[in-house]
Amino acid sequence: MAQRAVLRFDGSELTVHADLSSWAPFDINDMCVDRHGHAFVGQFGYDMWNGARPAAAPLLRVDPDGSVREAADALRMANGMVVTSDDSTLLVAESVGKSITAFDLAADGSLSNRRVWAELPDYPDGIAIDAAGEVWVACPVSDKFIRVVEGGDVTRTIDVPGRRAIACAVGGSDGEVLFMLTSTTQGGRDESRQVLGAAVETERV
């Protein structure tokens, strides 16, 4: 994240797959990989840790050969991302934009037909998609996880009072467990390392 690199692990050795430092002036963020091996990487776009004002920045794409290109421009802090089960759509949570943006996803990794998939009531962080195509959203400011459908309706809320909702994933043997990453801090590296207050919590969904 801080080194602005995508790493590859081959089972024994960790190497740099793509150096994004010339593409991202500040921290990179969440990543999602499609079935063809295209890795979509978000970035802050501004110096958040030192109080800079939010600025839009491109969504980046790293191809299987390690080459980098701009996948879409002017996202408002691209954060969590998922690909729909039919591999046709990339959904991107824009933290500063308080929304989920959808793109048509082609087999070559190109994105088109940009549109708002859902306006959100809270600032999103990580997201996950369930078998019904509904999207779970971690909301770190309001300490909760919400499930939303296309259009923005919230169909379920899980509160985690006193803990920041950071990220989530849907899984388990039957695909009906929500794994929720929570933390007593909100991302500051030094504080997080000192407190060690993160946890993975589960809820049947």
Describe the structure in your own words.
- The longest helix is centred in the last third of the chain and has 7 residues, at 189-195.
- With 205 residues, this protein is mainly beta.
- The model has no long low-confidence stretch (mean pLDDT 95).
- It is built from one helix and 17 strands.
Please summarize what this structure is:
This protein has 205 residues and is mainly beta.
- Classify the secondary structure makeup into a structural class: mainly beta
Largest sheet: 4 strands, antiparallel
Strand order of the largest sheet: 3-4-5-6
- Count of strand segments: 17
**Topology order in helix (H) and strand (E) letters:** EEEEEEEEEEEEEEEEHE
The global form is globular
Radius of gyration: 16 Å
Instruction: Assign a percent range to the helix content.
Output: under 10%
| Total of DSSP H or I helical runs spanning 4+ residues | 1
Question: How widely separated are the two ends?
Answer: 31 Å
Uncertain stretches: none
Mean pLDDT score: 95
- Work out the strand percent: over 45%
List keywords for this structure.
single chain; 4-stranded antiparallel sheet; globular; 51% strand; 205 residues; mainly beta
